[in-house]
Amino acid sequence: MAIHLPIPRLHLFEIDDQPWFPANLRNHVQSSLTLLWTLHIPYVQPCSPATLVARKLQEKYGDALADYTVVDFCSGAGGPTVEIERAVNLERGGSVVGEVIVEEEEGRGEEKENGEKINRSSDIQRRKDAPTAVEFVLTDLHPHTSAWREAVKLSDHLHYVPSPIDASAAPSNLLSLAEPPLPSSSSSSSSTSSDQQEKKKQLHIFSLAFHHFDKPLALRIIKNILSTSHAFCIFELQARTLDSLILVTTIWPLLWAFSWYHFWGNWDLLFWTYIIPIVPFVV
After folding, report:
1. How far is CA 33 from the centre of its chain?
2. Over the stretch 118-175, which tens digit does the pLDDT of each residue have?
3. Is residue 97 within 8 Å of 125, Cβ to Cβ?
């Protein structure tokens, strides 16, 4: 049973949200947060936090999840959404998730972007035209497009908006800005497929992001959600409880324990993690 702490909510500023915070350090912080979202330590966790979110979405929406296009706000370097998309569509499709096409890379077992390892083998497995697939779209006020370009190579149901998106002023034509284009905007789509895509609703999600907003901004975001989407989900991993406080204190040790392996070759990120530990401090 969680032990609640008698602490009021204190809205403090987020260092990486500040305009003066260097862009390269912001990218490193986002990449480290993605690592924490997707990290699974056997015998300690039943699954990664991202997989847990995927299961919650499946439990809440079931088969109806295919009626939505999921738009992730404040995506950072991809956060949990890349893993959520993979888990959701593999679970939904099962044996009918679509043809799995294996493309051989040119003699490389592991590709890197800016020194960051991409979690895949020498083969790229892409899920093609799954009849019940859910499309996911990454967005952020500070788009981490280099990480997103690599992420979308892993799935045909993952997309991103390369331009900055303010969650409090998301445009009504947001989906038309996505790259690669969503199936409805593909000229090769059949009329039936296009009709189905046009009928899809939008589900907006915020993963470990909503606590960044003060009350006035949060209200503006919710107002925008109500006018541009059909549903929304807010996922947070922390609470004003003793176990949550203890969990937060493990972030720095976890980053020191696993960053060297996950980001080997990204010497700039490793420098700001181990030599001058700005990244774990900000995270």
Report:
1. 10
2. 444 333 344 444 457 899 999 999 999 999 999 999 899 999 999 999 999 999 899 9
3. no
| pTM reported for the whole predicted model | 0.77
For 131-237, where are the alpha helices, taking DSSP H only? 145-152, 191-198, 215-228
**Bridge partner residues of 201 (DSSP):** 68
Residue in the block written with tokens 């939505």: 68
Supply φ then ψ for residue 105, to 5 degrees: -80, 165
Both tokens of 162, joined, read 């390369």
Are 259 and 24 spatial neighbours (Cβ–Cβ below 8 Å)?
no
Residue 17 near residue 212, CB atoms below 8 Å: yes
Q: What is the Cα–Cα distance from 110 to 129, expressed in whole angstroms?
A: 26
Total number of residues shown for the chain: 283
Degrees, nearest 5: CA angle 153-146-33: 95
What's the pLDDT tens digit per position in 201-242? Answer: 999 999 988 988 989 999 999 999 999 999 999 998 877 788
